[in-house]
Amino acid sequence: MKNTKYTALVIGFAITILTVGVTTYVVNSVAYAKTQLFQPSILSSATPRVALQIGHWKNNELPDELDSLRGSSLGSHGGGVTEPEAMLVIAEKTAELLEPYDVEIELLPATIPPNYTADAFVALHADGSENRAAHGFSVSRSGYSLTPASQELSGVINAEYQAATGLVRSGRITRAMRYYYGFNWLKYEHSIHPQTPAAILETAFLTNAADQDFLINQADIVAEGVANSIITFLELDLE
Ligand SMILES: [Zn+2]
Known about the structure:
The protein is an alpha/beta fold. It folds into two domains: about 1-35; about 50-235, 3-Layer(aba) Sandwich (Aminopeptidase), CATH 3.40.630. It is about 45% helix and about 15% strand. The chain contains seven helices and seven strands; from the N terminus they run αβαββαβββααβαα. It has helices spanning about 1-35, 70, 85-100, 150-165, 175-180, 210-215, 220-235; strands spanning about 50-55, 75-80, 80, 105-110, 120-125, 140, 200-205. The strands form two sheets. The chain has a five-stranded mixed sheet, covered by helices on one side. Helix 3 (about 85-100) packs across helix 7 (about 220-235). The chain binds zinc ion. Zinc ion (ZN) binds near residues 55, 56, 75 and 125. Zinc ion binds near residues 55, 56, 75 and 83.
């Protein structure tokens, strides 16, 4: 009787030790796997990297996984320019304004390098509507983001872009913005890394007369709004 009790105690003790051991192993393995999956490689580099994506630019070069966007998504147009033409000017001017700062700028076409990492990713677009009265800008964070920094980035753009341009918020934040293909790392290889802070900015409406004039003829101010957003978000210092 005494022996049986003793055996039961030993078995109970062994089961407890085994359970604790296995649980610790599983928890640690999952934690390790997560750090491997969600560890951006470049975020530790000294010079921050910013990607400005020019919406719809070189759309015909999109990879096969995004072939549905090649022809159908050429963007809006107005005032004699297409959306990618207008956004290329804005992106280049923004890069110029950021030149004196300690930051690396990369201009990206519609095609994003696979699993792309950056300290900030901003997709530049111009809105379009059949309603010619629709005007203003809008910003959305990535709906797929695994970092709260995407929310912060879109908040900073909302404030800084409005302060620089004086444009009103259009209030039009579509699903296509929030779940933008470039943010969709679950579905597409050619998308940003889940930890890359990301937002999409509809700079103004190319289909509205006043907005169109502003985008084309006040491109310096539009670029200032984008550059100020990046300077504030990354707390950039002059070189
Ligand atoms: Zn667009």
